Amino acid sequence: MTLPTTQRAAQIHTFGDPVTLLTAHPIPQPDTLRPNECLVKIEYAGVCQSDLHARNGDWLQKPTLPRIGGHEGVGTVVAIGAGTVDSIVSVGDRVGLKWLARTCLKCEYCRKGDESSCPARIVHGYTVDGTFTEYAIAWTDYVTPVPESLDGAAATSILCAGLTVYRGLKYINARAGDWVAIPGAGGGLGHMAVQYAANMGLRVLAIDSGDEKRKLCLSLGAEKWIDFKESGENLVKDVIAATDGLGPHAALIAAGSPTPYQQALWYIRPTGTLVAVGLPAAAQFQVPFEFLVGKELKLIGSAIGSRQDAIEALDHAARGKVKCHYSLRNIEDLETIFGEMKRGEITGRVVLKV
Amino acid sequence: MSYNIPKTQVAAVVPGPGKRLEIKQGEHVTQQSELEPGQCLVKLICTGVCHTDLHASRDDWPLKAKTPLIGGHEGVGEIVAIGDHTERSPVKLGQRVGIKWIAYSCLDCEPCRNGLEQNCLEVKLSGFTVPGTFSHYVVSWVHHVTPIPDSLDSNAAASILCAGLTVYRALKYSGSKIGDWVVLPGAGGGLGHLAVQYAAAMGMRVVAVDSGEEKRKLCLELGADKWIDFKETKDLVKDVIDACDGKGAHCAIVTAASPSGYTQAVEYLRRGGTLMAVGLPAEAKLEAPIFWTVIKSIVIKGSYVGNRQDAIEAIDIAATGKVKVRYELKGLSDIQHVYDGLQEGKIAGRVVLDMSK
């Protein structure tokens, strides 16, 4: 097949500067693909707050530059590298790209299913180019097959946002009927966490602000709602009151600032679990021992997930149990979207039609 | 580093289903250029013999071996060649590795993704569906061979690759905690004596069940807390319950190839206890009284070999010296005698074959 030679892409050149919109970036050609690499024509790319952190170089570990960002993509395999063995996909298959572009599958972490911690991991939009582009290189043993019944745009945000909250919720090991508090329940990750949690039989307390988010959360299965701006200093008291006067059994927190995590230490009931999936920049989580030990709390960090978690997260969506609420925009809007994200103005997820 | 790889070798071959073993000269040795990406050639130093090898040669299982068959799946050797275009191999030329029952798993299917590599939909079984370790050279897969630490002698490592791994994994997945009572019917046998040691290493309290003075001495020496001779006792179930603080065992690991061990276990397990079924009798059924299994909240789990992580852990524990295989060393040329011995129930402990003999 003949591919065009150039494409559009959003590339990070200098941390903190607006991304550069390239219009004639070279497309990797099929004959240059190494064994087990594949070329994917991206149809949809999700925008994640991590992409903003990557653009700003916020974290201790920074992307290598220049770097095409993005790590949530759905597209079609258009070429597979010569010499590829044991590929799980063929040319023409629809696949998902996620944060983890590839892990080794052979180290102790991978052998135990902890692919997120593989020391040899390759990351889209960070250590290799990602999905804010028309054609991306991915790996045949790591892309996620997308179920046919699932629309591409709807599948896109399951690959990072959905996966992350799904796996975080799994780690709570909750029983049906347990209360889980979800701060930021109206956001990109939050609104999917509400749905996965409700499907797991959990009773969901959605915490966010504004009428639009309130309506969304309650319609997606949250049993109760608290507006944190209205509660103000009374948030902890209000959360405890809303959850049978005892506090929730768990909290799943995707927030980009430390405050919701600190508050959760106060309202989670003794022996409860706090699962942190958010990545506030330049921030510390202060945990008084009286809470950690005195309340016998479990504090768990959960990062994205394994191939199996991704397949399960997509499967729930394919069966109609989880729907991503997204607005469809263009690659050219990326900087505007980052601005809205920073100000907390986005409900649900943003997906770029590439 | 390059190795002189001969074109032919000696191997013990079962020519057809149920046929007698033949030691054959002139069997083909896969050359480096013939290895597929991901494969390696291992020059064997020694190999263990497992009862499964006998089942394979006698064709008496529901699962069928591929004949002509070179059996064996407890091999220890050195990697002498790796296939071209092999990516990211975790092992290198010259490294000493073990080959176990699970020679290959795809790592992509649902069982593999969930850590059940032994149940891979594309699994390849050493000495059963692909050539095994009763030969001098064998093809295996770089991501599935088990690295052997320098501190563990090859002959000592061989039987860990199947017997050790199998009982270790059964103990690991039984949910047993430190201080729990674990009953081991057949504790003096090939798998049993390793189970005694792993259980003791994991902090469990062991009730060894077997027969005879020699096995009694062995089990107590290896760390068993209590011993029951099943031939001398008048009431095995009562004796086991009494031995476990009068409440019964937390766990039973049944490695015997006969059904009676299973029924008794449901009786002597305490409430909430776990029965790990490991032994593989061909046609027998596991009989457990439904009423007592339910009323006592008994858990019954099948445990089958292990994955790469289990194998590495089993070998690493042996390398610390906490688990030592009791084995008899023979030569590859003795293999038919060993099979006869296994058939007649005359083999105590494990047998390891030295390839140079």
From TrEMBL, chain A:
<dbReference type="InterPro" id="IPR036291">
    <property type="entry name" value="NAD(P)-bd_dom_sf"/>
</dbReference>
<dbReference type="Pfam" id="PF00107">
    <property type="entry name" value="ADH_zinc_N"/>
</dbReference>
<dbReference type="GO" id="GO:0005737">
    <property type="term" value="C:cytoplasm"/>
</dbReference>
<keyword id="KW-0862">Zinc</keyword>
<dbReference type="InterPro" id="IPR013149">
    <property type="entry name" value="ADH-like_C"/>
</dbReference>
<dbReference type="Pfam" id="PF08240">
    <property type="entry name" value="ADH_N"/>
</dbReference>
<comment type="similarity">
    <text>Belongs to the zinc-containing alcohol dehydrogenase family.</text>
</comment>
<dbReference type="InterPro" id="IPR011032">
    <property type="entry name" value="GroES-like_sf"/>
</dbReference>
<dbReference type="GO" id="GO:0004022">
    <property type="term" value="F:alcohol dehydrogenase (NAD+) activity"/>
</dbReference>
<keyword id="KW-0560">Oxidoreductase</keyword>
<feature type="domain" description="Enoyl reductase (ER)">
    <location>
        <begin position="16"/>
        <end position="352"/>
    </location>
</feature>
<keyword id="KW-0479">Metal-binding</keyword>
<dbReference type="InterPro" id="IPR013154">
    <property type="entry name" value="ADH-like_N"/>
</dbReference>
<protein>
    <recommendedName>
        <fullName>alcohol dehydrogenase</fullName>
        <ecNumber>1.1.1.1</ecNumber>
    </recommendedName>
</protein>
<keyword id="KW-0520">NAD</keyword>
<dbReference type="GO" id="GO:0046872">
    <property type="term" value="F:metal ion binding"/>
</dbReference>
<dbReference type="InterPro" id="IPR020843">
    <property type="entry name" value="ER"/>
</dbReference>
UniProtKB/TrEMBL annotation, chain B:
<dbReference type="InterPro" id="IPR036291">
    <property type="entry name" value="NAD(P)-bd_dom_sf"/>
</dbReference>
<dbReference type="InterPro" id="IPR013149">
    <property type="entry name" value="ADH-like_C"/>
</dbReference>
<dbReference type="GO" id="GO:0005737">
    <property type="term" value="C:cytoplasm"/>
</dbReference>
<comment type="similarity">
    <text>Belongs to the zinc-containing alcohol dehydrogenase family.</text>
</comment>
<keyword id="KW-0862">Zinc</keyword>
<feature type="domain" description="Enoyl reductase (ER)">
    <location>
        <begin position="16"/>
        <end position="353"/>
    </location>
</feature>
<dbReference type="Pfam" id="PF00107">
    <property type="entry name" value="ADH_zinc_N"/>
</dbReference>
<keyword id="KW-0560">Oxidoreductase</keyword>
<dbReference type="GO" id="GO:0004022">
    <property type="term" value="F:alcohol dehydrogenase (NAD+) activity"/>
</dbReference>
<dbReference type="InterPro" id="IPR011032">
    <property type="entry name" value="GroES-like_sf"/>
</dbReference>
<dbReference type="InterPro" id="IPR013154">
    <property type="entry name" value="ADH-like_N"/>
</dbReference>
<dbReference type="InterPro" id="IPR020843">
    <property type="entry name" value="ER"/>
</dbReference>
<dbReference type="Pfam" id="PF08240">
    <property type="entry name" value="ADH_N"/>
</dbReference>
<dbReference type="GO" id="GO:0046872">
    <property type="term" value="F:metal ion binding"/>
</dbReference>
<keyword id="KW-0520">NAD</keyword>
<protein>
    <recommendedName>
        <fullName>alcohol dehydrogenase</fullName>
        <ecNumber>1.1.1.1</ecNumber>
    </recommendedName>
</protein>
<keyword id="KW-0479">Metal-binding</keyword>
